[in-house]
Amino acid sequence: MMEKGHHVEKKKGGLITMPFIFANEICEKLAVVGFSTNMISYLTSQLHLSLTKAANTLTNFGGTAALTPLLGAFVADAFAGRFWTIAIASIIYQIAMISLTISAVLPKLRPPPCHSNEVCQEADSGQLALLYTSLLLTAIGSGGIRPCVVSFGADQFDESDPKQRTTTWKFFNWYYFCMGASGLVAVTVLVYIQDNIGWGWGLGIPTSAMALSIIAFGFGYPLYRKLDPAGSPFTRLLQVCVAAYRKRKVAIVSDAKLLYENGELDAAISIDGKLIHTENLNFLDKAAIVTKEDNIKAPNPWKLNTVHRVEELKSLIRMGPIWAAGIPLITASAQQGTFSLQQAKTMDRHLTKSFQIPAASISVFTQISMLSTIVFYDCVFVPVIRRFTGLERGISFLTRMAIGFFISLLATFVAGFMEVKRKQVALEYGLIDNPHTIIPISVFWLMPQYCLHGIAEAFMSIGHLEFFYDQAPESMRSTATALFWLSISAGNYILIDLFRAYFINKSFICNNLHAVIIKI
Q1: What fold does the segment set 15-229+312-519 form as a domain?
Q2: Mean pLDDT computed over 420-440
Q3: N or C, fewer C-beta in 10 Å, the chain?
């Protein structure tokens, strides 16, 4: 059966598509994490940017890359569909990775190397232009991939089938597991290659991985269950707002049955069922009130909208507080690629006399703890807690997110106290605290905060994704998933402001973001 205006390939999809989708995610994440994890070292050691400029460049890039999913979600939901949005965005990302790899291989595309006794020459305007162009292309590419992959994977399961609906929620856990596993390889193997073999290989390998991800994703094309785009969700939301404003003086009806309904008009955006009227945010109901001026047979959507479309807007508004709750978690964890990385560089990282851990590989503790928590959650926690709650997924989205938020708060306090300890050791030995000073304290003191952040991410981030996918109307799931990445953007920009505040005001208690947060 196919609903009019909304073609769905019912016989396709299911578990058979997962190897292709997961293969794409593994290779793509290997490229993304392998590119971004150690990039601050590339900017400071190869392009000779100052720490402040390098960190601001990366946090600006991270914030921008988390905003572009709104554009990608709009394109997917309104025009191209999720499959083609992912495919085209992956090609754009591939071009960006190739340009970065070429710049790392060709000496003319970066400043000459310098020795410790020399003043390093910073990258010139042309070299920086290539860098910024590549970063912009990666931001655009990731904007098409991020909001669509997780929704496209979940779309492969028919929610009208109780067995497949259960599989849908398992998918989120194992999607995040695959993402974390590839990230684990990136922060260990790739970072080691970048620091010890060369940036040509260090960026070339993730570039090749990105090419493989495109090939793997394309092979699954005949098997995918694909939903046709149902029109611009942003246009529909704006139409409801305009219609409600125009009828702001119209009295609210006492009976919801009097509000406008049109099954044929909503067929393309309500294949899984129409949204029912809710009592909150009643002022928006005015957009669905029929007046004498309205033509109910051919309504002007800027003046009259259906209940289903009004409820779409209400759903997004209700998700607002939950969206905002994820920002503090991102702000706390985002510093692992800037502040904590520089913190690790000043600590003793030796495992043996001849081998030391690359500073960027310290985040392996985050990845391991996150992966372990996901396996424990899916295989042990949910089956046990299900006996008490009666919920198929064990606990609700909000409960899962609350647990993650509490653990993130604990990680912040632990990190702040650890920074105080590091400072004390530096003072005891009379060492100047700068990136070139090695303080005689083991880098493994950072392990508790990294592990706690990984556990928090397994609870909070996956709960966030589940919540947005479940609560969003079916025609806006890419858009709703993009809200997850928008919270990452907000967290990155907050980190930028705190970073700048530190360098403007040296009276802060220490240069670690966690301690800054504690003082604030």
Answers
A1: Growth Hormone; Chain: A; (1.20.1250)
A2: 72
A3: N
